[in-house]
Amino acid sequence: MTPRFIGRLDWAPQDASHPHEWRLEEPYGQITRDGYLIICPPWRPVNGASIPRPLWPVLGHPFDGPNRFWSTPHDLGYTRQAIVLDLSKHAVLVLTPESWVDQSDNIPKALHVQNLPRIWWDNALHDGMRICSERSIKRFSVYRAVRLFGWAAWNRLKRGE
Fold this sequence. Notes:
Layout: E1 4-6, E2 22-23, E3 28-31, E4 36-40, E5 45-46, H1 56-59, H2 67-78, E6 83-86, H3 87-90, H4 97-104, H5 118-131, H6 136-158
Antiparallel strand pairs: 1-3, 2-5, 3-4, 4-6
């Protein structure tokens, strides 16, 4: 399966009470090289933490340029807000981004995001960076950062903090 992004990545107006959060205006998705569709539902908060804040001056803001395409599915995966479908079982559902959200509650075989390990989401992040043709040094730097330091956010979010 060819990894790619599906849908438009548009941000809703930012809420002044949450200056470090952005929300998608419509569904957005990423197809991974292993044949899964990561659905990013609209109106779920995204904070850009896939790129650690201290690295923003070096690697770029997570919502600028290509960074936004690959950081968004990863953010929603870490916060367990994404929906993941195995396309070998649900290929008929890949019609329009709107149908993903409309049908996602009725899909009995959708993967439980809580059961996907952190490395799966980090690999999806790496796939996303490849889709965007990010330079290998940037892919390596971001991937190593989430592998080395992402456990703290993963564990905190897993506990619901």
